[in-house]
């Protein structure tokens, strides 16, 4: 069953409190060498059958209008992952 | 280090003819001319950024200043008695006794909440809380007066859930109880929601801090979150002024808040105060570093020298002008003596708060800001912070005002077929209580933590939020915010007084002695003389009423330009009143108690035919006429009665009559704990010369319902008689009936409303529009 993957990230110029908290925590656990962290999110939209261009377009629209908040987030990618 | 050219003071002197984007930054031609005159040369890009943002309406109060002066002028010595810090600082401070003081303030975050409801409302809480911290106080509670468009409008569907989640997300994370506020729906707020936020904090007298930079040689430090490109959307035009087309030109107009960073900042600041490590402190809100440096300097020894490249950045591509204007959240600026610098650093390291030393206090009378050693700002800080433009905007009474005021409800088509029989009146009460504005608001308030901290003694839906300050004595404060925009639209002078009267009454109804006022004045465009008249009238009304009630305005905020597509909101002067309890365990709750079966119900005050602007008129789609009469002397006497009755333990429940009149008050007192009542309107109608419909739905002021044990009736009525205040026994609390029964001069006997049915209708309104609460 194919899956459409949508990746959303906070806009680069916007504060990302989660990423900041992780960045602060990393060295405490001994993970050094990372100068910053930003945390986004990934959506997996399952599809019964084939992913048509129409369906992909619908996923893009959903990504832009609903899965992301266009004021503070960017849709980074909308891709198709085939059966694992 | 810079990827862009820097417009230095030297460069500005050498290139007088460079065109600057002053108009794009919102400056008027004459304002720009004044900057040229003040500096004697063209401003640098950084100076222009500072002046433009500090001279904006939001920061300079340039349209409202001439009117706001009345809050400082109409003050008696008596009113100043408990006032430790008045208007002009981050928030006013009032003495509570026993070495305690309290500070509170209300602000608007309307526009950001419209653009991005969650973050806008969240950062509204963050900003007002930092105002409280910067006075040296520990924040103890917040409140949110909210106004949205029509409940069924799609924009309300978008804005309300985000705003509510944002307030909860930020306030709950900070561990601050949200103890009240308002939720109002009206189509005038479509595309222009009002998101006001109030915070209250407590401090010991010796912890009081002010925003000034005194002591030459003292060090200036910026601490908290790093500076990013937040909230400088409008300033992006400066990017082109940095002569570098390659850099990102689009900056976000919104800020994202981090409540956990703010929580750490609160504790860190309180420890700094405890060890007396800061001389002056200021939070960074609107206008960011521009505001903090110019205000600290001009309130202190008059000078400051700062190296801007020392500011810790989240985004290294920011230009100096953008750094000066950034509204990144969770930042503070402080002045520290060189001797305390090491101890200061120790406290900040303990809390894991980042900081950077920016410069020092001077006595030169100049605010000098360098970029990598080159001077980019050289100004008299007073000209930035205090001597901005002041406008005497023209104003006049709108031509339509007379017509509006003569369109009374009684004579309108909406008043045909008013409910008269018992059955019709009973139905009207249910219809009223299931209208959006009277309906149960717990869909909203259940998303806020009301009891965190363990010091909440009363909260929504009681008349006031009550917070214990000292758990050894029970010393505490009561707070209420109110405004009826419909009254204010009909008559802004009286409407503002009515807002104050209601907040005062609510605080007294809970049993607190009213002490101080904070106001958030939400209006349309000051460039419209009719709106400006509304504003002028509201300020005049509020300041007159404060003087009469003897409680001072200690601070607040003005929000103008609340209009969309040329349509302004109703004038909305939201008034917050703070009162004092010697012991919060004496507070009076608003609902009939189950154990209080058979207690007597008294109505205090008199009822006139005042339905203009009422909730009943709203049900019939009518808005016109004259708002209810204001009688501040009656409010004072009523307040005294309620405070004494609470202190002496005479009454077990009290609820003020406001929107929806007696009908709403009776319903709300029963809905609170599901305990019914039996009352009669006979005597009331006869004494006041009104019909049962008017008795139920009129919104006459200075009225309160109380419930008291029969053993206290005599003592209580002796007190009201001694003060010459009308009190009438309406009936009794009935814990068994499960309903509200009202008799009166109706042809068909009495009406009874089942509490189960009323509750179902009343509590279904918000969930039916907004669905399940999203966690």
TrEMBL record, chain A:
Its main location: cytoplasm. It is found in: Cytoplasm. Its EC number is 6.3.5.3. InterPro entries: PurS (IPR003850), PurS-like_sf (IPR036604). Signal peptide: none annotated. NCBIfam families: phosphoribosylformylglycinamidine synthase subunit PurS (TIGR00302). Belongs to the PurS family. Part of the FGAM synthase complex composed of 1 PurL, 1 PurQ and 2 PurS subunits. This is Phosphoribosylformylglycinamidine synthase subunit PurS. The lineage of its organism: Bacteria, Bacillati, Actinomycetota, Actinomycetes, Micrococcales. The gene is purS.
TrEMBL record, chain B:
Mg(2+) 1 binds at residues 107, 557. Gene3D superfamilies: PurM-like C-terminal domain, PurM-like, N-terminal domain. Its EC number is 6.3.5.3. The active site is at 58, 109 (proton acceptor). Residues 24-62 form the Phosphoribosylformylglycinamidine synthase linker domain. InterPro entries: PRibForGlyAmidine_synth_PurL, PurL_linker, PurM-like_C_dom, PurM-like_C_sf, PurM-like_N, PurM-like_N_sf. Residues 216-371, 597-738 form the PurM-like C-terminal domain. The keyword RNA-binding does not apply. It is an enzyme of class 6 (ligase). The keyword Nuclease does not apply. Pathway: Purine metabolism; IMP biosynthesis via de novo pathway; 5-amino-1-(5-phospho-D-ribosyl)imidazole from N(2)-formyl-N(1)-(5-phospho-D-ribosyl)glycinamide: step 1/2. One of its GO terms (biological process) is 'de novo' IMP biosynthetic process. Its main location: cytoplasm. One of its GO terms (cellular component) is cytoplasm. Keywords: ATP-binding, Cytoplasm, Ligase, Magnesium, Metal-binding, Nucleotide-binding, Purine biosynthesis. Substrate binds at residues 108-111, 130, 255, 327-329, 559. Coiled coil: none annotated. Residues 88-202, 462-580 form the PurM-like N-terminal domain. It catalyses: N(2)-formyl-N(1)-(5-phospho-beta-D-ribosyl)glycinamide + L-glutamine + ATP + H2O = 2-formamido-N(1)-(5-O-phospho-beta-D-ribosyl)acetamidine + L-glutamate + ADP + phosphate + H(+). Part of the phosphoribosylformylglycinamidine synthase complex involved in the purines biosynthetic pathway. Catalyzes the ATP-dependent conversion of formylglycinamide ribonucleotide (FGAR) and glutamine to yield formylglycinamidine ribonucleotide (FGAM) and glutamate. The FGAM synthase complex is composed of three subunits. PurQ produces an ammonia molecule by converting glutamine to glutamate. PurL transfers the ammonia molecule to FGAR to form FGAM in an ATP-dependent manner. HAMAP family: PurL_2. Belongs to the FGAMS family. Monomer. Part of the FGAM synthase complex composed of 1 PurL, 1 PurQ and 2 PurS subunits. This is Phosphoribosylformylglycinamidine synthase subunit PurL. The lineage of its organism: Bacteria, Bacillati, Actinomycetota, Actinomycetes, Micrococcales.
């Amino acid at each position: 069953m194919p899956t459409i993957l949508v990746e959303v990230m906070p806009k680069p110029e916007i504060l990302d409190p989660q990423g900041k908290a992780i960045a602060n925590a990393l060295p405490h656990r001994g993970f050094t060498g990372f100068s910053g962290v930003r945390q986004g999110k990934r959506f997996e939209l399952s599809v019964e059958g084939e992913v048509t261009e129409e369906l992909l377009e619908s996923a893009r629209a959903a990504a832009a209008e609903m899965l992301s908040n266009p004021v503070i987030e960017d849709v980074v990618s909308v891709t198709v992952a085939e059966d694992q | 280090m810079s990827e862009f050219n820097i417009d230095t003071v030297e460069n500005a002197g050498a290139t007088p003819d460079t065109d600057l984007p002053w108009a794009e930054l919102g400056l008027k031609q004459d304002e720009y001319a004044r900057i040229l005159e003040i500096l004697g040369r063209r401003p640098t890009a950084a100076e222009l950024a500072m002046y433009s943002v500090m001279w904006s309406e939001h920061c300079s109060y340039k349209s409202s200043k001439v009117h706001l002066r009345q809050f400082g002028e109409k003050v008696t010595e008596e009113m100043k008695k408990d006032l430790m810090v008045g208007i002009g600082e981050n928030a006013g401070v009032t003495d509570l006794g026993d070495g305690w003081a309290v500070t509170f303030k209300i602000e608007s975050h309307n526009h950001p909440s419209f653009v991005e409801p969650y973050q806008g409302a969240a950062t509204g809480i963050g900003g007002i809380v930092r105002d409280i911290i910067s006075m040296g106080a520990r924040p103890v509670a917040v409140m949110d007066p909210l106004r949205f468009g029509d409940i069924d409008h799609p924009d309300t569907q978008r804005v309300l859930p985000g705003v509510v989640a944002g307030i909860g997300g930020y306030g709950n994370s900070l561990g601050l109880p949200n103890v009240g506020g308002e939720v109002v729906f009206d189509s005038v707020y479509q595309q222009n929601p009002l998101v006001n936020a109030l915070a209250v904090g407590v401090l010991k007298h010796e912890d009081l801090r002010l925003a000034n930079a005194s002591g030459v040689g003292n060090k200036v430090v910026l601490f908290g979150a790093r500076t990013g490109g937040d909230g400088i959307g409008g300033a992006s035009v400066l990017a082109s002024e940095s002569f570098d087309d390659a850099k990102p030109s689009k900056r976000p107009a919104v800020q994202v808040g981090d409540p956990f960073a703010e929580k750490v900042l609160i504790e860190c600041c309180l420890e700094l105060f405890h060890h007396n490590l800061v001389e002056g402190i200021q939070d960074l809100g609107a206008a960011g570093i521009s505001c903090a440096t110019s205000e600290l300097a001009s309130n202190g020894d008059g000078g400051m020298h700062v190296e801007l490249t020392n500011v810790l950045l989240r985004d290294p591509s920011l230009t100096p002008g953008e750094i000066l204007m950034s509204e990144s959240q969770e930042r503070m600026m402080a002045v520290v003596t060189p001797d305390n610098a090491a101890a200061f650093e120790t406290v900040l390291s303990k809390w894991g708060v980042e900081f950077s030393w920016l410069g020092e206090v001077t006595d030169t009378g100049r605010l000098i800001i360098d970029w990598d050693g080159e001077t980019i700002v050289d100004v008299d800080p007073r000209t930035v912070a205090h001597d901005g433009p002041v406008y005497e905007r023209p104003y006049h009474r709108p031509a339509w005002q007379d017509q509006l005021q003569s369109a009374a409800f009684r004579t309108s088509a909406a008043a045909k077929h008013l409910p008269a029989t018992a059955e019709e009146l009973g139905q009207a009460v249910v219809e009223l209580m299931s209208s959006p504005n009277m309906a149960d608001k717990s869909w909203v308030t259940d998303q806020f933590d009301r009891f965190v901290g363990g010091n909440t003694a009363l909260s929504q839906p009681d008349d006031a939020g009550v917070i214990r300050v000292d758990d050894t004595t029970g010393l505490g404060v009561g707070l209420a915010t109110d405004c009826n925009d419909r009254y204010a639209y009909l008559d802004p002078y009286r409407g503002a007084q009515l807002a104050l009267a209601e907040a005062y009454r609510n605080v007294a109804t809970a049993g607190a002695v009213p002490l101080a006022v904070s106001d958030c004045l939400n209006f349309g465009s000051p460039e419209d003389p009719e709106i400006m008249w509304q504003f002028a009238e509201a300020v005049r009304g509020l300041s007159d009423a404060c003087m009469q009630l003897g409680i001072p305005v200690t601070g607040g905020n003005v929000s103008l330009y609340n209009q969309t597509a040329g349509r302004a909101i109703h004038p909305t002067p939201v008034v917050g009143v703070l009162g004092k309890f010697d012991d919060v365990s004496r507070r009076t709750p608003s609902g009939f108690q189950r154990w209080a079966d058979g207690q007597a119900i008294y109505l205090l005050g008199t009822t006139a035919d005042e339905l203009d602007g009422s909730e009943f008129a709203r049900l019939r789609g009518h808005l016109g006429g004259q708002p209810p009469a204001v009688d501040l002397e009656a409010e004072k006497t009523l307040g005294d009665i309620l405070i004494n009755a609470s202190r002496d333990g005479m009454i077990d429940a009290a609820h003020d009559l406001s929107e929806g009149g007696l009908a709403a008050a009776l319903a709300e007192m029963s809905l609170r704990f599901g305990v019914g009542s039996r009352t009669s309107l006979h005597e009331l109608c006869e004494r006041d010369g009104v019909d049962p419909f008017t008795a139920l739905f009129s919104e006459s002021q200075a009225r309160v319902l109380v419930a008291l044990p029969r053993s206290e009736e005599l003592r209580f009525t002796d007190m009201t008689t001694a003060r010459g205040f009308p009190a009438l026994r309406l009936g009794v609390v009935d814990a068994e009936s499960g309903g509200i029964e009202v008799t009166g001069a109706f042809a068909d006997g009495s009406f009874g409303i089942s509490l189960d049915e009323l509750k179902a209708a009343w509590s279904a309104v918000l969930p039916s529009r907004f669905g399940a609460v999203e966690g």
